[in-house]
Amino acid sequence: MIPIIKFVVRNSNYVSWSSSSVTANGAKVLWPSTLTVSFCTNNNDSEKKPSVKKTSKAMKAYLERARKHEEFIKKENLEYQIGKRHLANMMGEDPEFFTQEDVNKAIEYLFPSGLFEPKARPFMKPPEEVYPPQKAAEFDEAGRPYHFLFYTGKANFYKLLYEVVENINNLNKYEDRMIRKHLTPDPTQAMSMIGSQWLPQDVLEHRLVEPLHESQYAAFKLAFDRLVSHPYSYRVRDFIEEYRKPLVNQVALQQIPEPQYDENGRPYVTTTNCLRKRSWAEVTVRGAGSGKISINGQGLDYFAEIQSREQILFPLIMTKQLKNVDVEAKVIGGGPSGQAGAIRWGIAFCLRSFVDKEMIEQMRLAGLLTRDYRKPERKKPGQAGKRKKFTWKKR
Amino acid sequence: MTLFILRSLGSRARTAISEFSYERSRRSRLSTKPNVREEGLKSETDIETYLDPLKHPDYFKVHELFTISDLFEARVHYGHKIGSLNEYMKPYIFGSRQDHLIFDLDITARHLRQALNFTAHIAYQGGIILFISRNAQMAHTVETTALDCKEFAHTRYWRGGIFTNSQCIFGATTRLPDLCIFLNTLNNILTQHTAVVEAAKMNIPSVGIVDTNCNPLLLTYPVPGNDDTPCAIELYCKLFKEAILRGKEHRQKDIDQ
Which ipTM was obtained for this model? Predict the structure, then answer.
């Protein structure tokens, strides 16, 4: 039986309360009785002034915990900064320009670890990266939450959605004004979504300090897609880009080595560790050549099969460098197919230094620059081979 | 005409309606002025009671915030069809027109004044006010209203137990709202919003706009009216915001003194 609280409306037009009505002291709210908000009016000395704020023990404990965490992080940060300077002095580097990468290298040098798992090895990082972010105190001493969406449970996330809608509404108003002036959106400023993606769920969760359900993440993407699809979305570019992660162009990142020069002044590039199946190869491509190919001292006839020979020639033919370069290859292990594949990859990788960006992109699209990491699968006990099973007998 | 409506609504409704003061004259019923009967000052002690916010009939003058013609223009009197009428909403209905129910705006105005007065008093006492709505179209408006008057809003999916199991939901002992204002009491699947029941369980007073298909019983201050039209909801938001701001203004003044 759900208790129905009805305030008695008497004949006069103002509200009065029976003595058994709600008072915060009597009510079973989780906010305990030390909060002195009272609605009793039958006593003559009813308060004319608004009531005074008081804090409960539970509230004090919560605020204390939040304060302690903040102090802890501050202390850890201080220790980290001091430790970084000590480390720089130990390594003989300038403490002012000692970056996190230098710190990592120094720790690796001073504390060599034989452990396999990188996460298990000793590290030194700023406390923000080590300790999970915690929300600061979410309400003040009177118990009043700071955030207007506190009671939803995911204040930061829903505030974000609110801001998206706010932006859409503002852009709509702006668009109306522009239409009245017979103006159109600037096509040169239009936002391009190519080359970037929305912040992944875990990163978003870390930023908002709130766990998100899949449906909520989907709602986030939907809202932002809607915002971006507005013709004037470029006006809120900064806001959108905060939640956008650029997709890194791996090929652009790679540093193509400059060719070195030998005694004759000929440019050359060497690639070692060319691996394919069980083969290992080391390939040197020399520029200003005439198309000589030597594999382990022999020519192309090192390979008996035509397919292996074609594999080796393909990158040279595609880049039209067949008559321009000399190839020297050293290869051990594996069979003809593996060795040919290793040398082919080596040649393509070296040719990047002799060829322009467009051709490199074409080579990448052709799959010449992709490392084939497939290794032969092992034979398993209880089976005849990798996948082949022994004869199945019904009985 | 009223007799015809009374007859059509049934005997239980008739007694309910008679409770809600039909002794006013026909002229006063048709007038658009808010019907606040202020008692004349009879003695010295009356002055004291008028200075006390809790004894004053309308300390924050919420009756000035709106008129019945404002309600009419904001389409507050539109209800749903007769088929979806909730039995307990019958006292608030004026009649129907082409199967669509019409609220009696005099009754609505009276309830709205009581609700606004109560809201202002809660704000005056420094209470936490939570706006709740499940209307997706007006969610942004409701949240903006809450932000403007520095109160709180919840226009999202209601996780069961926010009030009744708050220790688990929020991880720590939290102070619950002192008032819940429902801009619509039904959720998207047209069942009653869980928060109505939770607020009643936790003794949290609730103010709610109840449409013809809503159940007003669990609300402390039901306000019969349209909860679907955007202009009506905007009017309610504006009125509640005004009432809260007035309450807070008085609070600040009294604290400063």
Answer: 0.81
Contact B36 A166 (CB under 8 A): no
d(CA B199, nearest CA chain A) in Å: 10
Residue A107 counted as domain residue: yes
* Residue A196 covered by a domain: yes
Summarize pLDDT for A338-383 with one digit per residue, the tens: 999 999 999 999 999 999 989 999 999 999 999 999 998 999 999 9
Is A110 an 8 Å CB contact of chain B? no
At A289, the pLDDT band (50, 70, 90 cuts) reads confident
What's the rounded Cα separation, in Å, for the pair A21 and A40?
Answer: 8
Q: Which tens digit of pLDDT belongs to each residue from A375-390?
A: 989 999 999 999 999 9
| Domain membership flag for residue A29 | yes
pTM for the predicted model, two decimal places: 0.69
Angle at the Cα of A305 (from A299 to A307), degrees rounded to 5?
100
Nearest CA in chain A to B59: A14
B142, closest residue in chain A (CA to CA):
A162
Task: Identify whether the C-beta of residue A232 lies closer than 8 Å to the C-beta of residue A191.
Answer: no
Q: Please indicate, yes or no, whether residues A269 and A359 belong to a single structural domain of this protein.
A: yes
B230 touching A, CB under 8 A? Answer: no
Specify the 3-state DSSP secondary structure of A275: strand
Range of the domain at A321: 259-365
Q: Which helix (H) or strand (E) holds B131?
A: strand B129-132
> Do A159 and A240 fall into the same domain?
yes
Residues in B closer than 8 angstroms to A46, CB to CB, are 52, 54-55
